[in-house]
Design a protein that fits this description.
Helix content is 49%, strand content 0%. It has helices at 29-46, 52-62, 67-75, 80-83. Helix 1 packs across helix 2 (52-62). It is flat. The two termini are 24 Å apart.
């Protein structure tokens, strides 16, 4: 995610992000945005994708403790660009 384009993807189009955890109902939209910003920061600094332990630390720092919420954030894939033409 590009800094300054909150809620938008790299092309500036709107993203559909998960608002609540499907299992427990906790609001995770703001955590998802901060998670992607932290991952982007690691990518820009190191030139590689964050490793699993780095992602775990980011989620711990955000206060995402439940595994259901962690699953929602980690497994989300932004597909709006691929679905939009249909």
């Amino acid at each position: 995610m590009v800094p300054g384009l909150r809620g938008r993807n790299h092309t500036g189009d709107s993203m559909i992000i998960p608002v609540r955890c499907f299992s427990c109902g906790r609001v995770i939209a703001s955590d998802y945005i901060r998670f992607t910003e932290a991952c982007t920061k690691i990518i820009n600094e190191t030139g590689r994708e964050p490793k699993g332990d780095e992602k775990a630390k980011i989620l711990d720092d955000l206060g995402v403790k439940r595994y259901c919420c962690r699953r929602m954030i980690l497994s989300h894939k932004d597909l709006i660009d691929e679905v939009m033409p249909y």
